[in-house]
Amino acid sequence: MLAQPGPDLLSLNTATVRAQWTLAQIIEGCAKHQIRGISPWRDQVAQLGLKETARLIRDAGLKVSGHCRGGMFPAPDRAGRLAAVADNRRAVDEAVELGAACLVMVVGGLPKGPDGRPVSKDIAGARQMVRDGMAELLEYARASAMPLAIEPLHPMYAGDRACVNTMEHANDLCDELGSGVGIAVDVYHVWWDPRLKAQIERAARAAEKRILAFHVCDWLVPTIDLLNDRGMMGDGVIDIRLIRSWVEAAGYRGLHEVEIFSAANWWKRNGDEVLATCQERHRQYV
Amino acid sequence: MLAQPGPDLLSLNTATVRAQWTLAQIIEGCAKHQIRGISPWRDQVAQLGLKETARLIRDAGLKVSGHCRGGMFPAPDRAGRLAAVADNRRAVDEAVELGAACLVMVVGGLPKGPDGRPVSKDIAGARQMVRDGMAELLEYARASAMPLAIEPLHPMYAGDRACVNTMEHANDLCDELGSGVGIAVDVYHVWWDPRLKAQIERAARAAEKRILAFHVCDWLVPTIDLLNDRGMMGDGVIDIRLIRSWVEAAGYRGLHEVEIFSAANWWKRNGDEVLATCQERHRQYV
Question: Which domains can be identified in chain A, with CATH numbers?
Fold first, then answer.
């Protein structure tokens, strides 16, 4: 079993306290609690302003473990798919401006209509759209030297959020797409997979660095909401340290990003308490 | 694309109307609506009585597409695991008495304590307990000529209900365990899997009949509850007919069992309306 991780490896995904704090307050909170990394969301960055966000993050001396997020490629028509790629180019630009380690890609589920509901049952087709959209974006991302990190999402999000749901599928995509693309491993999404260890080992054998991010939280039993009931590390059933041992054996040396959507619990607590708990649980369970 | 299925292929998993009707009423409902198959749950059978259930089902001329359910092997100690196997032997006996095509196995998640909460994070260990429990039960099931159908459950149930979550894992288990064990393919659990088609084809190459049951319902977007928000066929995003074409290409000729847990919708409707809708949607979407 691995030793406790150094506190400098902790990074805060801003969704974790987005209900309590603005992005400016979150950056201030990180500085105050001596958390050394951050991963902001695009809507928060847009609200605060890109330049201002970059300045505040720089002034606080924070590393940016990832920019959240690009993706959402499938669309019912070519115009929609082109618009998605164009929007992803802007996300690449933002990630560059923020000095992010990668742009995290939540690739999208089935194509949606104007009302946001799926208009197709063709998941193989959606996966093709993801591959094509990634390939189209990749040229731009390479020129910007911004790595794209495909995040396989839990299969319960296959319909609406991401039709890439396993490390194996993400590895296949990386093999196919070539240089400039890797994987964000989030324990919440992949912990259940009997092929996880083997596929992390496969990632380690890739020609270039493939594991670009490592996200942590916990899977609660019972889980009462598909979206917003993630657990704090240690409160659920994921052996997070075991998975960390695998990604480290695969050469990963980046930050450990805490990303917790928790409407019923952590979003209702005082932000300082949440950050202090993240630090304590990071030490104990990651 | 396949043609519409014959109405005689429809089977009703009794959970679909368990909130409205007793088991006796469900059997009566099947007869009334000319549904030719049924799959009862153990608790309902225990309440009505095994002999009486068998008699009513026989009198109604229903085929039993499966007995719901065995499994739940992992336990914190040897005594608990032995008790699970003993209970599964009784489930085999019941399945034989009912003339079921198979005993459906929901294998269990992480070992649980007396309060029903997981006491371990060792999912690989839980999977070993499942393998061992299945192997122990299998001797008895073979002697009773009752096939065991492992049902891979959606990965969102890995912690608490079943740590076998893909067709591939189920195929691996079947290969290892040998004769007398197969798979129940439920579209709700496996539709998202990019390896589904290949693993159904693999099942077709097994030495004996491996696909023992085919369960249908739909995946709703959004899904508002992890357990009890399954959709009626046609209301969600699963291409059910496509998956039926795969299991039929793999040689499956059994019933199409409708199994819908739906606290907010179908459990609140009139039972006759639910059954009529199942028939209509079976014709249109399965």
Answer: 7-285 (3.20.20.150)
Q: What residue of A is the nearest CA neighbor of B127? A: A194
Residues A150, A138: Cα–Cα separation, whole Å: 12
Residues from chain B that touch A173, judged by Cβ atoms under 8 A, are: none
Which among B109, B226, B239 has the least Cβ separation from residue A226? Answer: B226
- C-beta of residue B78 within 8 angstroms of C-beta of residue B84: no
Mutate to test the interface with A, among B110, B123, B224, B229 (most CBs of A within 10 A): B123
Question: Is A230 within 8 Å of A191 (Cβ atoms)?
Answer: no
Sheet with B63-64, strands from edge to edge, namely: B63-64, B37-39, B10-13, B256-258, B211-216, B181-186, B148-150, B103-106, B67-71
In this complex, do A159 and B121 lie within 8 Å of one another by their Cβ atoms? no
Which residue's structure tokens are 């959709």?
B231
Under 8 Å CB-to-CB from A173, ≥6 apart: which residues?
A130, A131, A134, A150, A164, A181
pLDDT tens string, chain B, 286 residues long: the values are 789 999 999 999 999 999 999 999 999 999 999 999 999 999 999 999 999 999 999 999 999 999 999 999 999 999 999 999 999 999 999 999 999 999 999 999 999 999 999 999 999 999 999 999 999 999 999 999 999 999 999 999 999 999 999 999 999 999 999 999 999 999 999 999 999 999 999 999 999 999 999 999 999 999 999 999 999 999 999 999 999 999 999 999 999 999 999 999 999 999 999 999 999 999 999 9
What distance in Å separates the CA atoms of residue B113 and residue B119, rounded to the nearest whole number? 6
Nearest-by-CA chain B residue for A222: B160
What number of helices (H) and strands (E) belong to chain B? 10, 9
Q: Which of A36, A41, A33, A32 is nearest to A11 (CA)?
A: A36
Q: Which residues of B touch A (CB under 8 A)?
A: 109-110, 117-118, 121-124, 127, 154-156, 158-160, 163, 165-166, 168-169, 191-195, 219, 221-224, 226, 236-239
Distance (Å, whole) CA B130 – CA A270: 42
Chain A nearest C-alpha distance from B148 (Å): 22
ipTM, two decimals, is: 0.97
